[in-house]
């Protein structure tokens, strides 16, 4: 499936993207229902905006995106929604980018979430691994270390960018 056409949404071309967004909204609806929490319009909009992007979004980028589709939410409210989504496992914080990504996985204990971050287009893909989780747990235990978070970030080039023409190098 070679594809050398520049694509404004590089990670969105190889899958049913509408499904990402619908699935994300469904997950936040279900989680709120399970916990007896209210799915506020802002919670829904933030989840939608995160799922629409395969590039992790910073809080202020989110505010800007939401402002184009309605009134501008206060940044503090967006931060609170992001905290909520992260604590409920519906989104992840990508530390190296200080940005957030919708999560499409039902995480199991013992798994490690591995984020493959493209340095050219920013697209970030999440891979869950039990084998990595096991190895990390062994390595940590051998050092008498108690891990707090089980998240790894790998920087590199995504499949799309590896197949695309070289960047013009202006960033
Ligand atoms: Zn996840
Ligand atoms: Zn890329």
From TrEMBL:
<dbReference type="GO" id="GO:1900376">
    <property type="term" value="P:regulation of secondary metabolite biosynthetic process"/>
</dbReference>
<keyword id="KW-0678">Repressor</keyword>
<keyword id="KW-0479">Metal-binding</keyword>
<dbReference type="GO" id="GO:0000976">
    <property type="term" value="F:transcription cis-regulatory region binding"/>
</dbReference>
<dbReference type="GO" id="GO:0003700">
    <property type="term" value="F:DNA-binding transcription factor activity"/>
</dbReference>
<dbReference type="InterPro" id="IPR036390">
    <property type="entry name" value="WH_DNA-bd_sf"/>
</dbReference>
<feature type="binding site">
    <location>
        <position position="121"/>
    </location>
    <ligand>
        <name>Zn(2+)</name>
    </ligand>
</feature>
<keyword id="KW-0805">Transcription regulation</keyword>
<keyword id="KW-0238">DNA-binding</keyword>
<dbReference type="GO" id="GO:0045892">
    <property type="term" value="P:negative regulation of DNA-templated transcription"/>
</dbReference>
<keyword id="KW-0862">Zinc</keyword>
<feature type="binding site">
    <location>
        <position position="161"/>
    </location>
    <ligand>
        <name>Zn(2+)</name>
    </ligand>
</feature>
<comment type="similarity">
    <text>Belongs to the Fur family.</text>
</comment>
<dbReference type="GO" id="GO:0008270">
    <property type="term" value="F:zinc ion binding"/>
</dbReference>
<keyword id="KW-0804">Transcription</keyword>
<dbReference type="Pfam" id="PF01475">
    <property type="entry name" value="FUR"/>
</dbReference>
<feature type="binding site">
    <location>
        <position position="118"/>
    </location>
    <ligand>
        <name>Zn(2+)</name>
    </ligand>
</feature>
<dbReference type="InterPro" id="IPR043135">
    <property type="entry name" value="Fur_C"/>
</dbReference>
<dbReference type="InterPro" id="IPR036388">
    <property type="entry name" value="WH-like_DNA-bd_sf"/>
</dbReference>
<dbReference type="InterPro" id="IPR002481">
    <property type="entry name" value="FUR"/>
</dbReference>
<protein>
    <submittedName>
        <fullName>Fur family ferric uptake regulator</fullName>
    </submittedName>
</protein>
<dbReference type="GO" id="GO:0005829">
    <property type="term" value="C:cytosol"/>
</dbReference>
<feature type="binding site">
    <location>
        <position position="158"/>
    </location>
    <ligand>
        <name>Zn(2+)</name>
    </ligand>
</feature>
